[in-house]
Design a protein that fits this description.
It contains eight helices and three strands; from the N terminus they run αααααβαβαβα. The chain has helices at 6-9, 15-28, 47-58, 72-85, 101-112, 128-135, 155-161, 184-205; strands spanning 118-123, 139-144, 166-170. The longest helix has 22 residues, at 184-205.
């Protein structure tokens, strides 16, 4: 008897994890493998971070449930980093600390999407994107970048993919896994085509333009 939900059964095994498992299997058999699956750091955690974490545990600083958005001092430190190093004016209240990007994206998808909604995903893409969309019972719409365009999708491709069911667009820049980066001009063009579609939809419905 299958006790899992239909939404879980609809999700395929992560290609990244499958590749990692296969690499470990080959290595255990003595086969020399170059593992390009999991994007793990090639260095150990810096010693000062290890020491600070141990001290915090020994001092009993973290022993209860944290605030949902994360500890305030950590969020303030993250905001300060963005302000100083990235010139982005984030404040602590703009920061949410999670277990990782996958958890945050899953939370957003589950909060926004309903069955029948569509989410445009720029391809090549991180393998979890489409799975998280399907987990939220929505439909991923893949828009493929070409090698000739450095694997980046064009504004025309995005505009063609947008429908009345489009609820979100997912992409990363720098892209995981290609490393391609959208320029400010390219990004603005893709935002513009999205907004043009919204204007047409509101005009067609007789609604007020936001």
């Amino acid at each position: 008897m299958n006790n899992l939900s239909n939404r879980i059964n609809a999700i395929e095994e992560s290609a990244t994890l499958a590749m990692a498992a296969k690499a470990r299997e080959y290595k255990s058999r003595g086969i020399d493998v170059i593992n390009l699956s999991l994007g793990e750091p090639d260095f150990k955690t810096p010693q000062h971070i290890c020491d600070a974490a141990k001290k915090a545990i020994d001092d009993g600083k973290y022993f209860s449930y944290p605030p949902v958005a994360g500890y305030s001092d950590l969020r303030e430190a993250i905001a300060a980093k963005y302000q100083k190093e990235n010139n982005v004016p984030y404040k602590a209240e703009n920061i949410v600390v999670s277990n990782g990007a996958k958890q945050s994206i899953a939370n957003v998808m589950l909060a926004l999407l309903n069955p029948g909604d569509e989410v445009i995903i720029f391809s090549p893409y991180w393998v979890s994107y489409d799975a998280l969309v399907r987990l939220a019972e929505a439909t991923p719409v893949l828009v493929k970048g070409t090698m000739e365009n450095d694997f980046k999708v064009t504004a025309a491709q995005v505009e063609k993919a947008i429908t009345s069911k489009t609820k979100a667009i997912i992409f990363s820049s720098p892209c995981n896994p290609t490393g391609s980066v959208f320029s400010k001009k390219e990004f603005s063009a893709r935002c513009a085509c999205r907004y043009k579609r919204r204007l047409k939809a509101y005009a067609g419905d007789g609604g007020a333009i936001p």
